[in-house]
Amino acid sequence: MSVIISSVIKGSKADRCGIKSGDTLISINGNEIEDVLDYMFYIAVEKVTLSLSRNGEAYVKTLRKSEYDDIGLEFDTFLMDKKRSCSNNCIFCFIDQMPKGMRETLYFKDDDARLSFLQGNYVTLTNLDDKDIERIIKMRLNINVSVHTTNPELRCKMMHNRFAGDKLRFLKMMTDSGIELNCQIVCCPGINDGAELIRTLTDLKGMMPNIQSVAVVPVGITKFRQGLYPMEIFNKETAGAVIDIIEGVQKECLDEYGRRMVFASDEFYITAGRGIPDTEYYEDYPQYENGVGLLRSLSDELDEALEAAEKTNIKRKVSIATGTLAGDFHKQLTKRISDSFHGVECNVYPIVNNFFGETITVSGLVTGGDLIAQLKGKDLGDELIISKAMLKADEDIFLDDVTLDEVREALDIKITPVANDGFEYLDAILGIGY
Fold it and tell me: Which one of 21, 210, 271, 369 is CB 3.0 to 4.6 Å from 239, fit for a cystine?
């Protein structure tokens, strides 16, 4: 495979040796280039020989550089290839439960091992073959895997893919070769919880120490499941049962390996009516991005911020909008702030998710339309604070395509999105730096 060079960074090694935009890159040190992983892997040497062509004429350039320096070539896409889409039809897939008419990019089902290595995405392995796994092992690519179950027949059923069970062998191929994996399990009541969850966690424990961590997260159920596989949501009892299984396996892992390996997401603890575990439970927060330990981290950082903050006589009234899951938790946090700053009043408004359905309770899926509908006419004080997770990563827009400015205008108030960071949270409430 060859790839067209879209631009060359001015002053770079490639620029100084005469490579131009529009040239075609054919190989590096004799190795064909399929995508960005090949490119990154094969230029990570001190002597790089590039085979190229220009207007159909082949030519060769040799560069010398520090081992991990870039050479200055840019391509039309980040991957130098198209993203690989999912070949499954999972019975719990959230994308299949979304309403029609949302922006097109929200419906794309990514399942690309390259993005797993580069950006931390989770992949199911079902669209990979032995050659792909050999490349992962050769390049020492630590990736994140959506396992869900290690029962081959059940995995085929859950993913609606007849190859899903066979692909489980890739887990052992990688871990036996020293590849480190982070895994996730989307847990569905009556399907892969109970004895099946015990089996899965026991199998993954057998692949330690190269299974670095496992997050168990509850299935998300929207109101748009008509015609899809029947699915229940977790309740206090069933969520508690999942936690009990996980904590049992954690004890075994601690005794044998000195670390827990598997963690339940914050949702399980709140649903079960149990307190969020202490800081030590989360070790180095290996599954933070999967909603494991977000609330503990925020709480601990807020305590640090309060201890470091200069106590002043601030007079201020603010409101916080959050998903219904964490409403009581934020009330506890804001009480600690008001106890330290007596002139600060914080109102917490848990937003019912009418857009996706009331069974969706997390803050990251709250929409602009629901914020407007439920906060219009409320006494929001001087400012409304929301989670940055409600917005598109690179744009101030909610999932329902309502913009942040539209919500500001509708509610006639300043709105500040904040990250899951205790210091930023306190500063926003106190109005420091905003």
Answer: 271
